[in-house]
Amino acid sequence: MGSFGTNISSTTSFSLTGFPEMEGLQHSLAALLLLLYAISILGNILILVIIKEEQSLHQPMYYFLSLLSVNDLGVSFSTLPTVLAALCFHAPEIAFDACLTQMFFIHFFSWTESGILLAMSFDRYVAICNPLRYSSVLTDIRVAHMGISIIIRSFCMVFPLPFLLKRLPFCKANVLTHSYCLHPDLIRLPCGDTTINSMYGLFIVISAFGVDSVLILLSYVLILHSILAIASQEERLKTLNTCVSHICAVLIFYVPMVSVSMVHRFGKHAPEYMHKFMSLVYLFVPPMLNPIIYSIKTKEIRKRLYKMFLKPNL
């Protein structure tokens, strides 16, 4: 019975799980996830290279896109080691401190992405509603300050999570649901009172994701109001088209994120594979689709890709 109330400091490792219910398809699943990683990493690196090399893309909108690509790379590299270890090398054990570190970075990059999407919506608002003031409002130094503020906010919100977990005694089997460490998964394991952890987690979700999503929605209400005031239908469509990439990025981030949150809080009786699938969508889909969406919808990026991959072969 002495181990029943073991303090967190004596807990040396966690066991990560993949998809045991898909045992016969483990190799196919691993290959699919590796493909998603490859698309995400290569796509976001390409976006960064193109923006760096193309002088016409040295504008606030593309600075924010660069920050989004760096953040998406961070998401991919945060989960890659344990996903590879659990699914490809059948090594599901992860040290406790390493698990807390991975959890910190996964949630840090998630909060940062929300802040970047909010900054990008502000960029679109200024460009459409106050185009004459765009260059004076979104100066390079102001864009840099916005980026630093987003990073500091995310760090301050996520920083307490590992310490709040480390103070708790763990007495249940240290088996996690996913192939990576997430806060909602970790707080199921302690035998102590996790009320503070749950309340703080809910507080930062509401204060970050909730506030950011409301402000993004408000910015698009104002944007639509300005677009509808344009007399020419052709000009309306042209102006709205400049927002399509960002709208897609917002949807592919917030829809899976809200779904994961709902499944964790209200879908306790849902099959375990549903929790795993929703978390995979949340962590894998946005980093993979963001560079694809912006490559398709941004003319300057399309042109640069054409020069890089097609023109030399002609």
Automatic annotation (TrEMBL):
GO CC annotation: plasma membrane
Record keywords, A-Z: Cell membrane, G-protein coupled receptor, Membrane, Olfaction, Receptor, Sensory transduction, Transducer, Transmembrane, Transmembrane helix
Domain G-protein coupled receptors family 1 profile: 43-294
TM spans (from-to): 29-51, 63-92, 104-122, 143-165, 202-228, 240-257, 277-296
Top-level taxon of the source organism: Eukaryota
Swiss-Prot/TrEMBL GO biological process terms: cellular response to lipid
Membrane topology summary: Multi-pass membrane protein
Predominant location category: membrane
Cellular location(s): Cell membrane; Membrane
A single MF term (Gene Ontology): G protein-coupled receptor activity
Similarity remark: Belongs to the G-protein coupled receptor 1 family.
Functional note: Putative odorant or sperm cell receptor.
Name of protein: Olfactory receptor
Species annotation: Canis lupus dingo
Organism classification: Eukaryota, Metazoa, Chordata, Craniata, Vertebrata
Gene: LOC112667514
